[in-house]
Amino acid sequence: MLVGSEVKSLRAGLVSIEEAYARMEKREVWLVAADIQEYKNANAWNHEPKRRRKLLLHRREIDKFAGFAYEKNFTLVPLKLYFKEGRAKVLLGICRGKKNYDKRESIKKGDMQRDIDRAMRRGR
């Protein structure tokens, strides 16, 4: 459920869903941490950029996808935001979070890459 200034910002491409995720609460699905920047021409009727937004899903979609994610402890992640027949749509994906050993491996890989980059800069 969007307000008018949010739709205009979406059409202008002023949106970031990199940190966003969807959460199910009381048989409703909410989009959390999606950053839709303020529309500069809306003035006093502008929206809050990082507010929670209710996603309008059919009951069977909520039961099938969001219910599965809620029960199995998966996360609903927005993959794509697009317009279809004048309506803003969000493509959601179901994913599993990293385990602790996966996180440690990612951190180790990042540290190694950072050390390599430092060595390359010193060598120049």
TrEMBL record:
- Any one GO cellular component localisation term in the record: cytosol
Question: Which Pfam family, giving just one, matches this sequence?
Answer: SmpB
Point out the gene that encodes the protein.
smpB
Chief site of localization: cytoplasm
Q: Where in the cell is it found?
A: Cytoplasm
The yes or no answer to whether the keyword ATP-binding is present is no
User: Please, which domain of life does this record's source organism belong to?
Assistant: Bacteria
**Any GO molecular function:** RNA binding
Q: Could you tell me which InterPro entries the record lists for this protein?
A: SmpB, SsrA-bd_prot
- Does this UniProt record's set of keywords contain RNA-binding? yes
State the species of origin.
Answer: Lacipirellula parvula
Q: What does this protein do?
A: Required for rescue of stalled ribosomes mediated by trans-translation. Binds to transfer-messenger RNA (tmRNA), required for stable association of tmRNA with ribosomes. tmRNA and SmpB together mimic tRNA shape, replacing the anticodon stem-loop with SmpB. tmRNA is encoded by the ssrA gene; the 2 termini fold to resemble tRNA(Ala) and it encodes a 'tag peptide', a short internal open reading frame. During trans-translation Ala-aminoacylated tmRNA acts like a tRNA, entering the A-site of stalled ribosomes, displacing the stalled mRNA.
Which family, according to the similarity comment?
Belongs to the SmpB family.
The protein's name is: SsrA-binding protein
Any one GO biological process: trans-translation-dependent protein tagging
Key words of the record:
Cytoplasm, RNA-binding
